[in-house]
């Protein structure tokens, strides 16, 4: 069995090393002999749009709650992690963007250009 090891420079609320972020197991193998605990999902929502799939997971570890947003596109996966204290600000930003898009669709705002 071939194993991989990835080292991440990430905030304290996440594991330091992980083979990959897996949603269906509590433990993953890192390298040949190490194991790393993966935080279980508390809630998961799936978004499918165009050729991309997004999973939004609410998770909790010793440092508290956080969101994990994963994107699959053309067989590639990437994820971002947002600590709980950043969720309100992220929601504000998304509402601003959504409002700006709706305004542009109604007025064809030249500042935004054509989408």
TrEMBL record:
<comment type="similarity">
    <text>Belongs to the PUR DNA-binding protein family.</text>
</comment>
<dbReference type="GO" id="GO:0032422">
    <property type="term" value="F:purine-rich negative regulatory element binding"/>
</dbReference>
<dbReference type="GO" id="GO:0000977">
    <property type="term" value="F:RNA polymerase II transcription regulatory region sequence-specific DNA binding"/>
</dbReference>
<dbReference type="GO" id="GO:0000981">
    <property type="term" value="F:DNA-binding transcription factor activity, RNA polymerase II-specific"/>
</dbReference>
<keyword id="KW-0238">DNA-binding</keyword>
<dbReference type="Pfam" id="PF04845">
    <property type="entry name" value="PurA"/>
</dbReference>
<protein>
    <submittedName>
        <fullName>RNA-binding protein</fullName>
    </submittedName>
</protein>
<dbReference type="InterPro" id="IPR006628">
    <property type="entry name" value="PUR-bd_fam"/>
</dbReference>
